[in-house]
Design a protein that fits this description.
- With 193 residues, the protein is α/β, with parallel strands linked by helices.
- It is built from 6 helices and 9 strands; from the N terminus they run βαβαβαβαβαββαββ.
- The protein has a single domain, classed as Rossmann fold (3-Layer(aba) Sandwich), CATH 3.40.50.150.
- The strands form 2 sheets. Strands 4-3-2-5-6-9-8 form a 7-stranded mixed beta sheet, sandwiched between helices.
- Strand 3, helix 3 and strand 4 form a beta-alpha-beta unit.
Amino acid sequence: MRKRLERKPVDYQVERSNEQWIDHQARTLVTGALIAWQKPRSILDPACGDGSIVLASMQHHNPLQVHLNDVSIPSISRLKDRGLPPNVSLSTSDIDVAITNRPNVDMIVLTEVLEHLAEPDQTLALARKHAQVLVASSPEMREGQEDTNPEHLWQFDGHGYLQMLAEAGWRPQHKTHLAFPGLMYDFAVWVCR
């Protein structure tokens, strides 16, 4: 199942943090480990938010080049104040512009991003042209559930997300399913080539 929700896009130019959600911390650790497991030489996270996922991966594997980008100026400004290592660069732009401006990286990271985009297929296809590996994650609805998150423009179950990845030319190699009691949905992290 893949369903377009009738919602307006959100303004992401306000300062945001995911640190208040314990499930985000768990997802960060798992996703960071899956990124490090692939041992990429270069990583682009074109919608990095607070940067926590790729920075967590660097505790296990330090690539030659990491580029963090977000449409949110406050998010990138906060990252500039963190004293990042010299192999990490930062920018602020639209997600598709960030992918186009950083061609031929080993890995593109799209964690909890596609459900927020008006055209997720376009972004996945663009990522396919510019990277060898994709690490992507999304909320995964259980049967009969409705996604009530007002920031989500799309709702997926595992089959719908898999189909979207395949239509963009990605071949999933691994899927980690995370379920958190009391949350409205589960999460899936995909590693694709």
